[in-house]
Amino acid sequence: MAAASPCDSSDSVPTNVTIKIEPDAEDGLLFGPEAVPLKRDPVVPLMSPVCGLQPLSWSQDHRLAVCTSSSLSVMELVCDIHSSKQDLTLHRTSIPLPTEAHKLRVGPSAELAQAIEKFSTHPDPSVRQEFLADRVIHPSVGVHRGIKYASWSPLGCDASGRCLLACLTLDHRLTVYNSHKRLEWNLLVDLTKKYSERLKERGYAKKDNKPPQANLLDLDELQRRFRMQTPMRMEWSSIYTIKQVQPDNTCLDVEMILLAVLMENGDLVLWKFVLPFTNGADVLFYDIIESGVARPSDLAWWEYENADRRMSGLIVGSEVGPVKIMPVSLSGVKGYFTLRHPVILWKECDEIAVENLKCVPMIHPIHKSCCSLIVASRGCYVFWCLLMISPAGLNVHNSHVAGLHSLPVVSLAVSQHGVAVYTCSIDGLIKKLTPTFTENTLIFKQEDMLRPENLSGRRMHGIAVSRNGAYVAIVSTQGMVGNFHPISRTYQVHFVTLKTPETAAALLLKSPSQNLYKLADLLDLVRWQILKNKCIPASLQEELDQKIQEADSPYLWRFKLFLVRILHQALQMPQMEHSWKPSHEESKVFIREDEEEEGENDYEDTVREEGVGGIKEEEQRAEVQAWINAVETHLMRENIKKVLGVVYLNTWLAQNISIPTCGLVDYLSKDTNDRASEVLIGHIKKKMNKQTFSERCSLCQTVLPFTDHKQATCKNGHMWLRCVLSYQACQTLTFRRCLLLDSIARLPEPEVFEDSASSGCYMHLRSLSVLPECLRLDSPGRSS
C-alpha cells in the first residue's frame, strides 16, 4: 500500500546538479540552429474537416488515426522493401460514421416524452433554456456528427497481435474495432449500448445500488441519468497477466486489458477484455469508480512498475482546474498494490481546463528509482507533475511551464524514447520541452521547432509523435494559395522528421526490444537515406558487422538483410522510356558534313560512357544480390538448426506433423564447414534409428521431395509453399503471409493426439511456425 506524503529530500547529491535524461543518440534530434527538420512526402489531404479536441493519435503498430467529421481516417506507415520510391508508404483505410441515429435510454418512453414536453415549455426561462440548449438530452436542436476521440490499445490485443481501436463519436457512441487483413475494420462491441442495458437492469441506480427516489419529471434526475452514461474520454491500460482457475483446479496465465471510460458525471467505468479479444460478447464489466469530479475534461492512466511491485490509477482532469489520481483495484495481478485514497495533483480551481493529459514512466537518474511524469495543457501553460515512490509514500512535485505560447495550446504529444514534450498552439508554433532532473524537481529546456517553409502561416489543429519519435504528424489547414485564401477550407496531414537517419541507425543498433517491426519508423528513415544516396553508410555497415561478430543474434542479421534489400532496390535502373511513345530514330534531319561528323563522335563517346557505367551498375547489382543470398542462407540455416533441435528432443514429432527431417538434414549437410550442424545431424540420425517419415502430397499421396526451402513440388506437378519456420508444406487454401510478402506460415490449427505430451510439444513447435521470422520481428500483422 502507498499513500501521499510530503516531499522528502536526500543529501547524497548537491541540489544544483542537473542531469539530462535523454540518451546520447537523441543528440541527433532536429532542433537547434544547425539541424533542420525535413518534410516527407506525400502530404495527405483529408476529405472532411478535422474534429475533436485531439484529432491525431498514433498507435504502437504505426497507424495514425485522424478524427474527421465524416469518418475516422487511418494511415498505416509501411516500411516497404519492394519499393524504390523515396516517399513514405502509407496504407489508408477509414471507419465511416454509423448511419443510424443514436439515442440514450434513460427510462420508459412515455415518461421521457412527458418530461421533454414539460421542460420544453417550462415557465421558468432558466430551466427551459438549460434544457433546450443541451444537445444530449434534447437532440432535436441538432446533433454534431463526427469523431470526438480515438484511443489505441497496446500492441498484441487482437487475434493478429495488433492494436484494438476505441472510437468515440460526437453523438456519444463508444465502439471498439479491430482490423481484418489490413483492409477493413470490424465492429467488435458497442460499449455505450452495453452499458445502457446494464443501467436499465439496475434501475439507473448508483454504485451503492440504491434505487433513485425521483422520476424523469425531475430535471436533476433526468440530467443525472443522461450524464451517467455519456462518455467523454476513454483510455486503455497496459496488459496484465492474471491467474485463471480451470475446471481441473489448475491455474492458467491469462492476459487481460482494461478500458477506462470517463463519463460526464465523473464516473469511471472499467471494461475488461480478455486477450486476444475477438468476440464482442466476451467483454466484461469490471468496476465503476466515482471520482467526484463534477465537470471532468480528460483522462489518463498512471501505472507504476518497479521489480515485482505494480500500482496503477486513473488521472482525471477537470474543466475548472483540479487534477487527481483515483485508485484502481486489480485482483489477481501478481505483485499489485492499491493506493489507499485519491491523490490530489493540483487543487486550485482557477477555471482553466485541463486537457491533453499524458503520463510517461521514467527512471530518476539521481535516486535510481522509477518515477512518473504527468503533463497536461492548461490554457497557454503546460502543467507538469513528478510522482516518486519512496519508503515514506508517494511524493508529488508539480508546477507549470509558462511563456510557451501566446495563445492556448491545442495539442500536446510526448515522445516515449528520450522523453520530450511537444506542444502546438493555434498560432502555428511548435515547441519542444526537454526535462532535466535536479535533486527534488524538474527543469524544462524550451526550444522552438524549426518548421519547413511550406508549413508556415497555417493553422495547426493537432500533432502526434510516432512510436519511436522518428516523425511528428501535423494536421493543418491548406494555407494560402497564391496570396489568396482558398475557396473552401481543406485539411492536410504532414509528416516531419524529428531524427536524422544517423540517429535512427544508432537507435536501431542499440535497441533493447530486438524487434524490427516495433522500430518501423526508425527503419523508414534509414531506408530513405539509402534510397537517396544509393549506398549503405560505411559507419553503419562497420558497426553492424562488429556487433554481429560480438553477438550473433538473428535481429542483427535481419537488420543487415533489410539494409541490403533496400540497397538492391536503390540500384535498380529506373524505366526512362515508355513503350507507348513513338520512336524518333527514323526522323530525317539535314545537317552539314562537319556537324554530322562532330555529332557522331559525341554520340559514340556518350554511348561508350553509358555502356561502361551500365556494366558497373550490373556488376554492383549482382554483388548486392549475392550479398542478399548469403544473408538469407545464414538465417535459413540457423532456423533449420532450431527446427531440428526440437525434432532431436522429440523424435516422434516428425511423424505427427510431417516435419521433413531427412530433407532438412540433407540440406544442412551440404556445408561441410559447419561443425554445429554435423554434431546435430549425427545425434538426430543416431536417435531416429532409420525411422523416416516422408511428407506426402494431400492431392495424390505421392512423396514430396525436399529440394527447395520455399516450395515443394511432387512428381505430378502439385506445388505447395513451405512454412518459413517449420518447413512443412502448407497444403491448405489459406495461410498467413508476411507483410513483406517474402514468406508464409501455416495457420495455427491444433490437431488431436492420443498422447497429451505429444500434443504439448506439437503446440510448442506450431507456436513457432505460426509466424514467419520476418513477420514476428518485422510485423505482427497477418493476412491470408
TrEMBL record:
Domain Transcription factor IIIC putative zinc-finger: 688-739
Taxonomy, superkingdom: Eukaryota
Coiled coil (residue ranges): none
Gene Ontology BP annotations: transcription initiation at RNA polymerase III promoter
Gene name of this polypeptide: GTF3C4
Compositional bias segments (type: Basic and acidic residues): 605-614
Region (Disordered): 594-614
Taxonomic lineage of the native organism: Eukaryota, Metazoa, Chordata, Craniata, Vertebrata
One term of GO molecular function: histone acetyltransferase activity
Biased composition (Acidic residues): 594-604
Short name of any one Pfam family annotated for the protein: DUF5921
InterPro entries: DUF5921, GTF3C4, TFIIIC_delta_N, TFIIIC_Znf, WD40_repeat_dom_sf
Protein name per Swiss-Prot or TrEMBL: Transcription factor IIIC 90kDa subunit N-terminal domain-containing protein
Record's GO cellular component terms: transcription factor TFIIIC complex
Residue span, Transcription factor IIIC 90kDa subunit N-terminal domain: 58-499
Matches recorded under SUPFAM superfamilies: WD40 repeat-like
PANTHER family reported in the protein's UniProt record: GENERAL TRANSCRIPTION FACTOR 3C POLYPEPTIDE 4, GENERAL TRANSCRIPTION FACTOR 3C POLYPEPTIDE 4 FAMILY
DUF5921 domain segment(s): 500-576
